[in-house]
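ERR on first pass: missing label on line 2. Operator R.T. fixed the label and resubmitted. Corrected input:
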Amino acid sequence: GAGVSQSPSNKVTEKGKDVELRCDPISGHTALYWYRQSLGQGLEFLIYFQGNSAPDKSGLPSDRFSAERTGGSVSTLTIQRTQQEDSAVYLCASSPRGGRNEKLFFGSGTQLSVL
Amino acid sequence: AQKVTQAQTEISVVEKEDVTLDCVYETRDTTYYLFWYKQPPSGELVFLIRRNSFDEQNEISGRYSWNFQKSTSSFNFTITASQVVDSAVYFCALRPYSGAGSYQLTFGKGTKLSVIP
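pass 2 clean. output:
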């Protein structure tokens, strides 16, 4: 399809395991964002990519979280040594150029459950 | 620091009623953008509208209208003659024009709207 694709849609893992979440943005979009949505905290910014670089990663909650983007396209968000508080929906979004007034196109998210 | 407050956590209306979703924001920036997004049960946030801080003209799109008042830092959203398909969570968001944080959207906690047939 032509939208933002995220996989897996659901991920159940055990505390202490590492997980990788994938985002495939809309073709040609240079800007890519990760957000986290949880009941208590609402929607929180995690990281912004422009091409393969991340000018803003100030929202990553701890050094257990990392993200990369390769080829200016697919991005992977990695959470190491998962904790129960990491349980949330992880949303990816993209936009054409990263302009401040651009609308974001969101994927359907990955529901992460840490047992 | 930016802050967006959506005081209404949940609203229920009967179909065909009008409903207004409130959004109040805080920012020290003089230039910024405001957005509304809709999140239906499928989970994917969908863009509804964008407004520049220097443009206070209200906007109407079909059954949707938005009232931006810079003097009260509010950007309210009204649905006229609500329909069941309007049931969703609605988010108001703010993004600075420049500077630290300008790569980020700051979202409110959202208002869950239920339209009862």
